[in-house]
Write a structure and sequence with these properties.
11 strands; alpha/beta; globular; nine-stranded parallel sheet; two-stranded antiparallel sheet; 8 helices; TIM Barrel
């Protein structure tokens, strides 16, 4: 069994190498609301803050985006920031801007180096994925390439293909999040994560959403998921666990799996 690859942020392993790294979302609509979230979350010491910019009212105002990102970083006490526009077809909020404007926003954020990572969906146009890969790499910004299905868990071949596509496009991290319709779907997602760990040389993030899927948020690191999402102040997806509860559960699982090592 291969070791789980750790997510690297500016040359350092996210979470100091402890699996899984904990990511918490920021979903405020305004700069003030976002900074209030940051102030609430930072004392809980997550490993990464995910700014879900699809919730942000000023997403079309690039200077406001950059200024807000810089304000988040200043208030984050050294916690790195991931910038995510989640496509509405993959569980995100409806936007007032089109995809070229989204790509321009991401490009400007990378060039301003106001975040450490960006997330972009594999369902987007290949030309846009490749353009953002080039600009993020040139700017020294890590890139997560992701796939989400909020209705179901696709079959094994589809799950495998999504992880593989992230690698083929040159992602720094591949992410797959799906909705289970049975407890067996959770096992399907974990098995796909394990297969990807064995065959791909990039870090992975995976999760099964919803209530029964929350088990994957606690156990996924055993199968190769390098990070998990937790509620800091507000949830951004179904099945997220409060960061305090998640830490308790992870400590119990680590003790059982590693024997305290």
């Amino acid at each position: 069994m291969k070791e789980t690859r750790l997510i690297q942020v500016q040359g350092k392993s996210l979470g100091g190498g402890t699996l899984p790294a904990i990511i918490t979302p920021l979903v405020g609509k305004t700069r003030a609301a976002i900074l209030e979230e940051v102030a609430f979350i930072v004392p809980k010491k997550p490993d990464l803050l995910e700014w879900r910019i699809d919730f942000f009212e000023a997403i079309g105002d690039i200077p406001a985006v950059i200024e807000t990102a810089l304000a988040i970083r200043e208030a984050a006490d050294g916690i790195p920031v991931l910038l995510t526009r989640r496509n509405v077809t993959e569980g995100g909020q409806p936007l007032t801007i089109d995809e070229p404007a989204v790509v321009a926003m991401y490009t400007a954020a990378c060039q301003a180096k106001c975040v450490e990572l960006i997330d972009y969906e594999l369902s987007n146009a290949p030309a846009d994925i490749q353009a953002l890969r080039e600009v993020s790499k040139a700017s020294g910004i890590g890139m997560i390439m992701s796939f989400h299905n909020f209705q179901m868990t696709p079959d094994a071949a589809t799950l495998d293909s999504k992880f593989a596509a992230a690698k083929q496009y040159g992602a720094d991290v591949g992410k797959v999040a799906v909705m289970p319709n049975s407890d067996l779907d959770v096992l399907e997602l974990l098995a796909a994560t394990s297969r990807a760990r064995e065959t791909l040389d990039i870090p992975l993030i995976s999760m099964s959403m919803g209530g029964v899927g929350s088990l994957s948020r606690i156990m996924g690191w055993v199968y190769g998921s390098a990070a998990t999402f937790a509620v800091g102040k507000s949830s951004s997806a179904p099945g997220q666990v409060a960061i305090e509860d998640l830490r308790t559960a992870l400590a119990i699982v680590r003790q059982a799996v590693t024997g305290g090592q």
